[in-house]
Amino acid sequence: MTDPALDAEALRERAVASLVTARDRTTLLTGCVDEPDLTAQHSPLMSPLVWDLAHIGNQEEQWLLRAVAGQEAIRPEIDSLYDAFEHPRAERPKLPLLPPDEARRYAADVRGRALDVLESTALHGTRLTEAGFAFGMIAQHEQQHDETMLITHQLRRGPQALTAPDPDPVPLFTGPAEVLVPGGPFTMGTSTEPWALDNERPAHRREVPPFHIDTIPVTNAAYQAFIEDGGYDDPRWWTAQGWAHVRRNSLTAPLFWRRDGRQWLRRRFGVTEVVPPDEPVLHVCWYEADAYARWAGRRLPTEAEWEKAARYDPAGDRSTRYPWGDADPGPEHANLGQRHLRPAPAGSYPAGESPLGVRQLIGDVWEWTASDFLPYPGFEAFPYKEYSEVFFGSAHKVLRGGSFAVDPVACRGTFRNWDLPIRRQIFSGFRTARSEDV
Prior knowledge:
Layout: H1 4-31, H2 35-39, H3 49-68, H4 100-120, H5 133-155, E1 178-181, E2 184-188, E3 204-208, E4 211-214, H6 220-228, H7 240-249, E5 257-260, E6 263-268, E7 271-274, H8 286-295, H9 303-311, E8 312-313, E9 318-319, E10 366-373, E11 393-400, E12 416-419, E13 428-429, E14 433-435
Parallel strand pairs: 10-13
Antiparallel strand pairs: 1-4, 2-3, 4-14, 5-6, 6-7, 8-9, 10-11, 11-12
Helix pairs in contact: 1-5, 3-4, 3-5
């Protein structure tokens, strides 16, 4: 029998490591530019970086210091300034935000107290503290905002501020173009992953007919073929809403692409480069992904299909935590954690493929699915409705799998992301599917 004290200590160590990793990344993202870049709004779609910095600290204070430890508020007067639902992103530069140095001091003060709380809190007894959930939730929240801040860096104009090594080159992928996923039930979602968020719960059986799914994400070269074939000029491939969006916004290629003679260039974190043909396509909206799939005679996978392709192990007739099994992600499995500032070439990470042979389902690019963001049967909002419940409905489409900008703590085979179908600034790509009888 496992010693409960040892389990608690391991959980505490995991929580500390996750919080420290997140804060190191926050420090990098906010420390690599000067104060004017921190306080500027680089796009109306995004907050100023300094808002994210103080918001991270404020959420940590509210949940770890107040909710878990029952402490008095440090800065109650700033709660409304950093309420994401009270102030839309476009309006946040006009608020009396904490200046950068004060925001840093506030976040550091909260973190020091939060680590003391973690050291003295029993990791059981309440839903918030069970298995360290609240601490894992806050680590995930900070990493999600780190990804948001990385998006802001991509939108930011000016010289390069971030650097990272490129992924290792790999031979051009020559494996099968698609994989057959057998029909039948599988377990979707989770009831056992301790830090899983409410929209991932509960685990439930889902029947999925047989289908084929791309072995690798759609690449830049494949997407260029769609462009060159007039894909953006042919309404046959677009939904009515998608076609209206393309016309209204004069879309002709993924965001950050521009044509230079006979080649395509892209801007990536302050550097202009030739679009690499073998990378998964990036910065496309749901409408673009859906149109490409139609042009290719295919479709986007449903969310259930995507998860079955990623988690179903036919040998054991079970769902694993990740495509490669139950072990936490390692650098051999997936491109995660801002280790690189780009997707790895399509076909990378054979150690991370699923039992059925599908590659790069975790990391590299968020993958659009055909599904609306809806609750699972038996869903219960926890610990607050504003994380998931207020977004349920047909307005938002589900993305799966994470990107190179996602930390492993905020990425699982069950993790669900969602966004509006027009969004392109996010690190989004896709793969296609087809029903077995098509």
